[in-house]
Amino acid sequence: MRAEEMLQLLEAIKAGQVAPAEALSRLQPAVADLGYATVDLDRKSRCGFPEVIFCEGKTAEWTAGVVQRLADAGQDCLGTRVSDEQAAHLARLFPHAEQDRLARTFWLPASREPRPTQGTVCVFTAGTGDLPVAQEAVVTARCLGAAVELIADVGVAGIHRILRHRDRLRTADCAVVVAGMDGALPSVVGGLSDGPVIAVPTSIGYGAAFNGVAPLLTMLNACSANVMVVNIDSGFKAGYCAALIARRAARV
Amino acid sequence: MRAEEMLQLLEAIKAGQVAPAEALSRLQPAVADLGYATVDLDRKSRCGFPEVIFCEGKTAEWTAGVVQRLADAGQDCLGTRVSDEQAAHLARLFPHAEQDRLARTFWLPASREPRPTQGTVCVFTAGTGDLPVAQEAVVTARCLGAAVELIADVGVAGIHRILRHRDRLRTADCAVVVAGMDGALPSVVGGLSDGPVIAVPTSIGYGAAFNGVAPLLTMLNACSANVMVVNIDSGFKAGYCAALIARRAARV
Amino acid sequence: MRAEEMLQLLEAIKAGQVAPAEALSRLQPAVADLGYATVDLDRKSRCGFPEVIFCEGKTAEWTAGVVQRLADAGQDCLGTRVSDEQAAHLARLFPHAEQDRLARTFWLPASREPRPTQGTVCVFTAGTGDLPVAQEAVVTARCLGAAVELIADVGVAGIHRILRHRDRLRTADCAVVVAGMDGALPSVVGGLSDGPVIAVPTSIGYGAAFNGVAPLLTMLNACSANVMVVNIDSGFKAGYCAALIARRAARV
Amino acid sequence: MRAEEMLQLLEAIKAGQVAPAEALSRLQPAVADLGYATVDLDRKSRCGFPEVIFCEGKTAEWTAGVVQRLADAGQDCLGTRVSDEQAAHLARLFPHAEQDRLARTFWLPASREPRPTQGTVCVFTAGTGDLPVAQEAVVTARCLGAAVELIADVGVAGIHRILRHRDRLRTADCAVVVAGMDGALPSVVGGLSDGPVIAVPTSIGYGAAFNGVAPLLTMLNACSANVMVVNIDSGFKAGYCAALIARRAARV
Amino acid sequence: MRAEEMLQLLEAIKAGQVAPAEALSRLQPAVADLGYATVDLDRKSRCGFPEVIFCEGKTAEWTAGVVQRLADAGQDCLGTRVSDEQAAHLARLFPHAEQDRLARTFWLPASREPRPTQGTVCVFTAGTGDLPVAQEAVVTARCLGAAVELIADVGVAGIHRILRHRDRLRTADCAVVVAGMDGALPSVVGGLSDGPVIAVPTSIGYGAAFNGVAPLLTMLNACSANVMVVNIDSGFKAGYCAALIARRAARV
Amino acid sequence: MRAEEMLQLLEAIKAGQVAPAEALSRLQPAVADLGYATVDLDRKSRCGFPEVIFCEGKTAEWTAGVVQRLADAGQDCLGTRVSDEQAAHLARLFPHAEQDRLARTFWLPASREPRPTQGTVCVFTAGTGDLPVAQEAVVTARCLGAAVELIADVGVAGIHRILRHRDRLRTADCAVVVAGMDGALPSVVGGLSDGPVIAVPTSIGYGAAFNGVAPLLTMLNACSANVMVVNIDSGFKAGYCAALIARRAARV
Amino acid sequence: MRAEEMLQLLEAIKAGQVAPAEALSRLQPAVADLGYATVDLDRKSRCGFPEVIFCEGKTAEWTAGVVQRLADAGQDCLGTRVSDEQAAHLARLFPHAEQDRLARTFWLPASREPRPTQGTVCVFTAGTGDLPVAQEAVVTARCLGAAVELIADVGVAGIHRILRHRDRLRTADCAVVVAGMDGALPSVVGGLSDGPVIAVPTSIGYGAAFNGVAPLLTMLNACSANVMVVNIDSGFKAGYCAALIARRAARV
Amino acid sequence: MRAEEMLQLLEAIKAGQVAPAEALSRLQPAVADLGYATVDLDRKSRCGFPEVIFCEGKTAEWTAGVVQRLADAGQDCLGTRVSDEQAAHLARLFPHAEQDRLARTFWLPASREPRPTQGTVCVFTAGTGDLPVAQEAVVTARCLGAAVELIADVGVAGIHRILRHRDRLRTADCAVVVAGMDGALPSVVGGLSDGPVIAVPTSIGYGAAFNGVAPLLTMLNACSANVMVVNIDSGFKAGYCAALIARRAARV
User: What is the pLDDT of residue B1?
Assistant: First the structure.
């Protein structure tokens, strides 16, 4: 809350228009305290999308507890990196949720009604093995409201494969490029596009790929100026950011 | 060029509407071959902004040669990481260019007429020492057409310093956060914003900061989903991408 | 033993007040030689707490052997990183011991009588997945005599979650902050506190988290001056040091 | 501010006992906005010591500006990593300040009156070359109010050198151990002490010392449980934390 | 396609000698779009050998799908890093293919007729444990048409073992040297040969071998000028490049 | 010497056809012992080119001493990484030698007569700043007898720049690709060529380029199978190997 | 063979005292070529101990094949890093061999007769978990003929534990110190001894121990001058070198 | 002091044969406390050679102070890594000392009388640039009493260069091998010798040599079992250990 807003609120207290307890709740955003988790129920109003559950390192029970709490609050619930065990547990408790086992995601929207899409995102992969990460980006971006297209296996060893898709690049509000090994594709895509490109290094490869370090460094050093990078294998962040950008582009 | 467009062009040749030489120039984007450089004169039409000159590792003469060639082509010319020697050399040859020695940039617009801004970018720094990198982001984003605001030294050790600026975050189309050492600021900014955040690690710090590796890793692992990262000290890329995002958001 | 004390002892030998063999035992601290282990029975008098058993890399038999020897010497016995196999083996031999499977600890106090607590420690985690490490800190600090409070999942993406607990920070003698991924929480906690903060990086996360290297570097570079760091996943050391600090603070 | 305090304040507004503007200033801690720096004037009340100026990467003018602002606010002013150029500039502007060129510190206390010391800190170095870092710890701890003793060059290659000082370890509230190369000294000191030990790796050494990485890793893995670590060459943080611990121990 | 060729083609359209659709297909190399893969059917004509399938990270079905598509196009099909599961699946579908389980390769030539070899390659290993990687090189080079000889376990600890084979070095068109641990063999082989040497570091070894990093660095720093390096464990690339070199040497 | 040859020689001794001293000199290759250097005078006959002098870390006198010894032996003499001081010293002593200050090479051929070239090499750079390394490759390959062409600044951000040169790729016997930063160019070049490609990472770039580590990893992981790698900034090795390959290709 | 010896041999051929074939076999040391291995049968005469079999990465059959070949040649046979599967296979084929499953060694002496020991070695471990590596050193040194004593768990956290054994240090010809985690013990042992100390880092520990990197670096930087280092977990090399040193010391 | 000795001493006190003060001095080894240094005057009797001064990071005055103190105690004084400034300062104060500027050593023996040598050491270098490090080994080993021979530039690219010196290897008590870049020479030397080999990696090289990391790893992974390693560029430690080994071998 910025100074002017806060002063306005305090003046309203003085004027008797707002009760102190009510003002307090506005000054302190809502959380749900589950003991093992402090669920940020204010995230949606602050960030435009509710807290997303990173399922790794959580028990199936903890995961389900947070899902339940978000659902109770009437918020969309997205979970990522859902293990097989968690997936089965969640499927029993939330049979209507959408689970994508390639992307390892869990999606329980607050409402089943279709929503209009906001902007378009285009997701490219350098190889076939990058598909699970790319699919995480696809699912995430769709949950945030973007229209998403996925184009697989257009790495630079056959440069004509990506050149065929230049028109798609031009019409997308944001491109996501998923690549392991040499991680060279985002540099090329960046040079063909007038929009922002989000590069996702993957742990595909062996030896000096160092579980994604090699493409991570490549992408951080991309010779095209419009390339940004997210964590290794983080299809989630790429899809999230791409959807935010597309949403803004489609805003007006 | 996509298949349908290309086929159209080829049909036009057949129909005698387009001369083969003319078609050839459309199929092969323009370059200027200077021996030591192959200037990409097509970049502007393809990417929305001309080739930017990375001055490190170039002689002053090479740098000036590329500047001249872009100017001759009637294109804006932005140079980054301009050394003192290069700056002096360029100042003699291009006295009307704008040079910012804090940002180490060179800017020679194709036209001196003011241009309308497209979208707004907000640049934050964690510390005072991050200012040179931040200023490179500021200059770059302005050259690309964004309205830019710079807010310095609001690192998380005094968390109220960034909380004061939440309203600015809400109105900006894109935030850039520049930080060295622990690189923690983007995570906090991300959690206060509903838009994309571009994090720039800097080489400020000592010991286990490892010339920017520490904040780079922090930012790649930011717990806020809307944080993307660019190379260490790359104020340039952050400003470039932020301006592209702002431009799209302001497009309609 | 310092020079004056030693001289005093030697004078006492000369004076016939102390037998040479007795003096020898004072000059050479006690150990128990088990072949596979040289148990430091003097640790308690020297360091204020007996030797703690690091169970990793030991057979269940070796582990039990050291436990038995400490118990025989009438000393408290704490074991950490107890594997499932070791836990089962120890449970059979020492049914009265307390085992915490989340923390993976074994605790066999020399006496079952309750002891007064000495000082207070507050343990925070950034995420739910950090709980096993945090719990190791909790158990360890309690074994050393501190009163401990645990507050989970207050990472900086929802900054209000930690701000709610500022009063607890002020009353604790020492704070422990457990975080993986970006490891940003200790910097923020440090800036809200006038006491020492012990940061524990965890191996929670993926990709560029590099099994805890990312938060380790973040914490070593924390912009708050009152942050110290222990090894990745070392809830044990954090709890141990925090209890020592709390004990001193509560000493008088 | 915790919830109860905040509610009390809001009730006081309602009761007309506190003006909204006054309440606002209590809710938003003070900063001084210098353009290139946002000085945290609330740090002293929140953290028990004012903001310390990290001088690296700042111009001499920026440094002096922050010093002046803290002095104007009647707060102690400590600067670290002061370059020769900054030192000369500051000496001209603040001739009464204490500068230590071995420690590279600047100290301008708010008042020249002597203060009672709070607790004792003992700083050890493994070698002579570690002295500049140790001296930074000494100066910092003294500025925070501790009585400090410095013992140099007692590395483990001659183990009797440290054994001579066991009595000092027992009487200090906190030990700081500064070591480069193998960084083995803190492990030994930890095993001789019943208090907390803060280890500072230094960049002294060559080859596989990797500018302090080797002793940093050694210290993070110290086999003694009471060893915490700060950044490479960070005498500042070690002195700061040690003084905080000593202050608490001496509190009552 | 270079400018002159392209102009020729365009002139031919104009002259009515080539139909636009035909020209289009010449300008855009062929791909097969399988959804999960974009198979580069032009690779053979462009690079002299068809696309090779890297099987890691692919499902058995995806792998088989690409194999089928290449076979349908009448092209040789080589697969590498074939898992046991993939091998069994492929064996059922393509019983005539040659699978080498030491090399983990799959080979389905377009024609069963024997082909004349083109040039000779000699593959050396430093140890017995390097054999799987070496065998991948052997199979690959043979698929590309080279005559290959394999000589195992001639590491430098018994330097006479490699000296015995100097005559083979002189007659081979290209040498491949496979080594883990110290990776010293390529330096020695390079000093005994007047031809190119391709070094392959392997992940054989332990501790500071760091899964092949040690021999990788050794080989990149080989004191013999004629040593080139490929990725850790990449027998495939070494065999591929060696065969290309041998083919050129045998060309005339 | 292989077994049969050696046996033949021994039989010749027995037959009195070869004197033992003469046989000894055949069994032990020639060296020149200068105290500070053991010059390998047999290198030329064994490896096809004399020992090349790596000048870094040598005094100017040592460097000149080795040059003189090779010249005395009637062998070509190539020096690399010649410092300014060494260059001046050598220029005084060997005024007829060719020195290239961009490549930092020294070249004193045994004979001034022109030699026929053997095969062709094509050297590409991604950027202008890669030119010094590329020039070292050019000079080296020419000294070994290749015809060399240099094409600068055709990085992948403007992909059409390299596509223009596909015909040159087809006619060269070997391609060398020099690139810093993302190091993506060799992957693309490899996909356009049916010959071997030698990739040279350069230390051009900043931040996460890590002085050439980023492009080194990119190139080791190149998705094109025909890419081999040499040490960072080693234009020398690339040129040397390329010339060897070209020489073999041109042999017949 | 040195020049004079070789000349002597050649003169002997000339004089008819040695047949050329016989001379050849002296000039070329013996190997046994098994296809998958080139066994160095000359190692014993050259290095004083036969080739040792590194069993990792070999099939059980390959391992047994080499054992058999060495046994056939009448040489001692030592194998290290023997897996459970290999151990069982070897036990069936060589029931008289000694296998130590803690050390993971296989020992089949050429003769069962007891041999006199040559020199003494003392092996220390910092912790109990270091025992498997220490035992590999013990077995190896014994196979090479040394008298070996093993003293476990005398790490520096209880410094008196190692001080008790100073007399053993003085009488041993060589000390081996095995330690993980902080790796501090060799520095202390070195400072108490006038003989050579061989330090063995182990992969015991967690987090920033980085599988032995931390103690490796500590040991390379040991502040005691008489400390040498071998690979992580290489009890084998430490035992081998220690026995060689002890053998020399006992030689006369 | 071991238990029996200590008991004996204590009994002697009781018997009035030894005064307590005298006994105290025997129990506590001598040091000289200079404030900036705690000189270990007992090192010579404990370790067989006095404390050696590591001059890096010390002022010239500090260095001279320690030299003077050792000289006053009648002990040999060796200094290493002496800077030009320190060398000049020491030369003025100790004109009779021997300084070697290639090795950067200072040597002031307690007596000028010649001493008999004890054992022989052979130092090899792979290249000419390794000479400064090798010379530090030579000087150090000589100061400790060994007869030392230096053989330069016998790297493995010309393998016959080292093969010429096999006889020297056989007669030396210990070999030191100094190498940068690929660090391959110790593996070869180890395979030709029946004695211990001490490998010294140097920072000679560029790019992926990483200032000595590459040869360090090579040497730690040496395929010859008799190779031990010291720190990068540590000619000092290699010479020290080699002399200790040679001394033992020559002892009887």
Answer: 61
Would the CB atoms of G20 and F13 count as touching at under 8 Å?
yes
Cβ–Cβ of E13/B16 closer than 8 Å?
Answer: no
At residue E211, does pLDDT exceed 70? yes
What does the alpha-carbon distance between residue F14 and residue D82 come to, in Å, rounded to a whole number?
81
A88's enclosing H/E stretch is helix A84-93
Closest chain A residue to E40, measured at CA: A158
What is the pTM for the complete model shown?
0.96
Please tell me which of the candidates D157, D187, D209 has its beta carbon nearest to residue G191.
D157
Per residue in H234-246, pLDDT (tens digit) is 999 999 999 999 9
What local confidence, expressed as pLDDT, does residue G189 receive?
97
User: Average model confidence (pLDDT) for chain E?
Assistant: 94
List, for residues H117-139, the tens digit of each pLDDT value. 999 999 999 999 999 999 999 99
Give the other-Cβ count within 10 Å of B177's Cβ: 32
**Chain C residues contacting B via beta carbons under 8 Å:** 126-127, 155-159, 163, 181-184, 187-188, 190-192, 205, 207-210, 213-215, 217-225
Rg of chain E in Å (alpha carbons): 21
Domain ranges of chain C: 32-114, 120-251
Chain F interface residues facing chain G, Cβ-Cβ under 8 Å? 3, 6-7, 10-11, 13-14, 16, 19-21, 23-24, 27-28
Question: How far, in Å, CA of E228 to CA of E238, rounded?
Answer: 9
Model confidence at G1, in pLDDT bands (50, 70, 90)?
low
Which of A3, A13, A27 is the closest to D14 by Cβ? Answer: A13
The 10 Å Cβ neighbour count of residue E202 is: 30
Contact: B13, E27; criterion CB under 8 Å:
no
Q: Which chains touch C (3 or more CB pairs under 8 A)?
A: A, B, D, G, H
Give the per-residue pLDDT at C35: 94
Cβ-Cβ contacts under 8 Å for G237 (sequence gap 6 or more): G200, G230, G231, H225, H227, H228
Q: What is the mean pLDDT of chain F?
A: 94
Look at residue F23 in the predicted model and tell me its pLDDT: 84
- Residue C202 CA, chain-centre distance (Å), reads 16
Quote the mean pLDDT of chain B. Answer: 94
* CATH architecture of residue range(s) H120-251: 3-Layer(aba) Sandwich (3.40)
- Cα separation, A123 vs A133, in Å, equals 10
CA–CA gap between residue F87 and residue F55 (Å, rounded): 10
Cβ pair E29:A131 closer than 8 A: no
Partner-chain contact C194 D244, CB within 8 Å: yes
How far is G171 from chain D, CA to nearest CA, in Å? 19
Contact C182 B213 (CB under 8 A): no
Nearest CA in chain C to A63: C128
Closest-CA distance, B52 to chain E, in angstroms, reads: 27
Residue F49 carries which DSSP code?
A: S
Q: Closest to E128 (Cβ–Cβ): which among G29, G37, G203? A: G37
ipTM for the complex? 0.94
Separation in Å, CA of E27 to nearest CA in chain A: 10
Chain A positions in Cβ-Cβ contact with residue D22 (cut-off 8 Å): none
Distance CA D214, CA D199 (A): 13
Q: Give the pLDDT confidence of D169-201 residue by residue, as tens digits.
A: 989 999 999 999 999 999 999 999 999 999 999
Residues in chain E: 252
- Nearest CA-CA distance, residue E5 and chain B, Å: 10
Minimal CA separation from C154 to chain A, in Å: 6
Q: How far apart are CA C105 and CA C95, in angstroms?
A: 14
- Are F174 and E228 contacting, i.e. CB atoms less than 8 angstroms apart? no
pLDDT > 70 in chain B, percent: 98
Cβ atoms within 10 Å, residue A182? 33
Distance, CA of B185 to CA of B188 (rounded, Å): 5
